[in-house]
Amino acid sequence: MKKPISVSILELAIITQDSNATETFQKTKDIAQLADRLGYKRIWLAEHHNMAHVASTATVVLIGYVASQTENIRVGSGGIMLPNHSPLVVAEQFGTLETLYPNRIDLGLGRAPGTDQPTAEAIRKDFFEQAQRFPQNVSKLQEYFSSENASGKVRAFPAEGLNVPIWILGSSMDSAALAAAYGLPYAFAGHFAPKLMIQAFEFYRENFQPSEYLDKPKTMACVNIIAADTNEEAELLSTSLYQMFLNLIRNDRKGLQPPVSSLDDIMNEAERFHVNQMTAGTFTGNKEQLITDLRKFINYARIDELMVTSPIFDHQAKLKSIQITKEVIDALNE
Which residues pair with 80 in a beta bridge? Predict the structure, then answer.
């Protein structure tokens, strides 16, 4: 570890089996307040649609709620799926958030719909056209935030002149190329698509063009971390995560499932192969195990920041995992 690394949380607001959105929002508040007290740098919420067991559909509303319930932690989007929205409206929304919670709001932008094709078309008829216009729409968003737009015919209030950091999020080389060309920080979705992560980071760093926003590359990797007092307990808790990805593969829409003693009985070899590919960016264990594994990963990936998501069924176990994870990062930074 050559330099201190900050740690943040991606909260997916996943509804567990036999729970509901109301309870999930309460849990999200608990997580955010704990992260705030522990000194996590950011907590981001993700935009998903038409998923019965993901409660973060109205992402901007949830960001505002979390910001209102915390004091210091930065709150943002991981991410807002820009092709779903008008850049003007996004600027107005995040300008409002930044005005309400100064110097605490991040705007992470993604190109994907965060849903299936019929839902993407229900959100916006020209979604696929807008997905192709993602780079131009990022530029338009930057224009709305700029003070220079004061002379424009269309202006975004109260966004104009405010500094809301924009991150490019992705799971492919396309996003790495855009972040590098625009001189913006880059976050990779290693928690579900880790295959190209190292390659994408290398391409981003090699091709980065300094900008008014950033003078050198800035990378963040999002990974799954399941931490517990013992390796055995962490392994058991992690079976909920593997079941979640198995259900994604099967298109079986269930809430987050409780842990099981063995995964062998519930998935075949082909399913296990696909689940293992999607979850390769997962770190499981006690504090000592995670210190070893994360030190290797952080040095290998050469990242500036780490973001973690922890799909754990039991709420108290999840809070404990967040506590242990911060202890791990503190130990790595010593």
Answer: 109
